[in-house]
Amino acid sequence: MILATELTLEAHKQEEPILVEIDGGLVPFYLEKDEVKQRDHQSYLIKFDHVSTKEEAERYINTETYLLSYSGLQNNEFPTEKALLKNYSLYDADDVFVGKINDVLDFSGNILLQLFIKDKELLLPFTESHILDWDNEERKIKLQIPKGLLDL
Prior knowledge:
With 152 residues, the chain is mainly β. 3% of the residues lie in helices and 44% in strands. The N and C termini lie far apart (44 Å).
């Protein structure tokens, strides 16, 4: 299978699963030992353990994949792959917890953070200029949120 990513998989520990989104849930898949080969600067040839036929592998074409933890990021290095922000804890400028980032949506280059607060969807505009601080180890991000947006 081909995995396209901006991340470097050489730093990924093979005993940690790659999470594959299937029917709205994340399912862990482990890489078969020594079956990660760099294809080009943005993709790898990989083989999941327990996936042995072409037909089984085709089931995972165009699925979202996530690394449970990514040791290639330094604590103060912002991830270039925005999907890594899923499940980060979001705080406002006053360091008040806003919620967990449920998803990162891209509408023609306009990035929105999706949160659910009191069972209501909240979409926050996201640009790197709004970032006040982040911590990859704690999976926290502090954001300048436009006034009144949380009151909606």
